[in-house]
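Our preliminary data section would be incomplete without showing what the modeling component actually yields. Below, a chain of 135 amino acids is followed by its predicted structure, encoded as tokens that our downstream tools consume directly.
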Amino acid sequence: MNNNLPMLLVQEIQPDKLHENAGKTEIIAIAVYGKGAGVPMPVSTQRVFEGESRFKFPTEITSGATKTRIVYRYTIPQWKELLESVTRPSAPAGLKQLMIPMLLHLKKSFPEAFGAINYDRNFDPEQYAEIITME
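Predicted structure:
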């Protein structure tokens, strides 16, 4: 892995869980930045989902001597809304670096929920965070 690129640890969700409780099932993703890699400012902004009160985006940021970890914890509808907005060409590069690979991962796992979302295909795949699935 390139130490300047983040890793994205993604919780594995079984497809049957998505169908059973799509509105309540959370998918957790943890972005890990290596030592010396700065976290882009747009990654630590706030977000309001439709019909909800303001909450921190992402849900947790912790900094350490050798890495910075950012935890994203959203329901399926929240992920869908988030990915529709932060994977567009106009989105900041730091967000696209994390969220385009997350979108591609979710498209593969849950095409019925995420398959129709378009993304910035001109963003360099060499800049994508590495996805690592956690069980």
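Residues 53-60 have pLDDT under 50 and may be disordered. The first helix runs from residue 15 to 20. Preliminary results of this kind motivate Aim 1 of the renewal.
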